[in-house]
Amino acid sequence: MFDDPRRHLALAATLLLCLAMSGLAQAHPHGWIDLRMRLVVDDEGRLTGLHQSWRMDPFYSLVVLEELGRAEGEGGLEAGLDQLGLEIRNNLVDQGYFTELRLDGEPLAFAEVNDYTVLERGGRVEFVFLLPLETPTALDGRTLRYQVFDPTYYIEVVHEEEDGAPADDALAVGGELDCETHVLPADPDPAKVMEAAMLDVTDEAEPGLGRHFAETGEVTCR
After folding, report:
1. Can you give the residue ranges of every domain in the chain?
2. pLDDT number for residue 165
């Protein structure tokens, strides 16, 4: 999905080749992820992790599923998806899993992801994983904000939509807390919009560009 294994997910070369041959790769981003986020809360009302579902766009999913179908060996498609999940997880480790999380403006640290899977749903590839916090953290009376983004803005990440608005389950909170949730749209500086538009398939943006185009999930619990 991405062209540099230090930053990007697996199978990028195939996607890039298909984009280039089809003439579709004219400007960033080159694909997108539909995001669903659920805050995992323990019995003491502490946030323990972020359960994320990344549903890849239809074109990328088609390329991946066709590639895995051609490469089917022992275990078939399911084994191929399992291997893809391992590659995605490993490539995301050094990138903080593309996720930034702050509580009342203070950053929260993550532990290692060990619970993950890749599946096919509705003809699309979906990467599902639990991103645990390094330390469980109380949410009462404080505001949590997160962003999920590819730093180079090669892939755009947006909360899953229904009828032009974030779906009801695009941002949810587990447990018994009384929380108010919002998905805030990105509001990039016009200069950043121009910078992104000037990039083509052979260019790589400076790390951090994606932050300017990222939606913000906001959760305030009482």
Report:
1. 12-221
2. 87
Q: Which residues are paired to 107 by β-bridges?
A: 102
| Non-local CB neighbours of 220 within 8 Å, separated by 6+ positions | 142, 143, 144, 179, 180
For position 28, what pLDDT does the model report? 61
Rounded to whole angstroms, the Cα distance separating 195 from 126 reads: 30
Residue indicated by tokens 């298909």: 18
pLDDT of residue 72: 62
23, HSE (Cβ side, Cα atoms, 13 Å) = 0
Identify the three-state secondary structure at position 131: strand
Q: Token pair for residue 76?
A: 């078939």
- Which pLDDT does position 6 carry in this prediction? 36
Q: Report in angstroms the alpha-carbon separations of 171 from 1, 183, 217.
A: 25, 8, 7
Structure tokens at 30: 């080159």
**CB-side exposure of 213: number of CA atoms within 13 Å?**
26
Tokens of 26: 């004219």
Contact 1, 60 (CB under 8 A): yes
pLDDT of 59 over the 70 cut: yes
What does the alpha-carbon distance between residue 5 and residue 88 come to, in Å, rounded to a whole number?
9
* pTM for this prediction: 0.83
Hey, what are 3's tokens?
Answer: 């062209």
pLDDT at residue 204 above 90? no
CB atoms within 10 A of CB 161: 12
Q: Is 116 helix (H, G, I), strand (E, B) or coil?
A: strand
Tokens of 179: 């929380």
